[in-house]
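User: Fold this; tokens only.

Assistant: Input:
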Amino acid sequence: MRAARVFADRADGGRCLAEELRHRTWADPLVLGLARGGVPVAAVVARRLGAGLDVAVARKIGAPGRREYGVGAVTAEGPAIYDEAALHTLRLTAARLAWTEAGERAEARRRLGRYRAGRPAAVLAGRDVIVVDDGLATGVTATAALRDVREGRPRRLVFATPVAAPGAADRVRAEADDVVCVAEPPGFRAVGQWYADFRQTSDDDVLDLLFR
């Protein structure tokens, strides 16, 4: 694992991550980019590994008035998950967040429908599936995505990211067969601080990468 570094952009993060992954043996690999920011990273990884590329969607459930503070996450299907410690700290309950949860699930379904554009979901069963994001902060969104992917019965399920908060990788190891990250830098406050160019990835960007 490398020391703290700033990646030029998500593609640079993908190149560095691919170097960590390409010496391993993969069985019919499929790379799933966690939309939206994980897709530019995943596209580079898939190209370097000669793997298929598809998309996974999970939405953060933010605290009231602090939308970027993720206390839970939800996918298009399946139950939402919550960080019980965060709920306790903020004196929140899942019931109080039901409206937010429903809105984020609806957005997950909208995005998945647009990205798939009528295509069937990729077959996961029996394959090595690598879920890729641009960074790992709390791990709650990654956990929701991994649980959703696990339902497809992959042969092996790996979570991979260029940068993770110290300790965050440990929190998702229970959900994946392996976790790979290039760096877990001290002083981590947000994913964006480790990219020189962290401009927002749009739906059109995702579609372009998926269909290129």
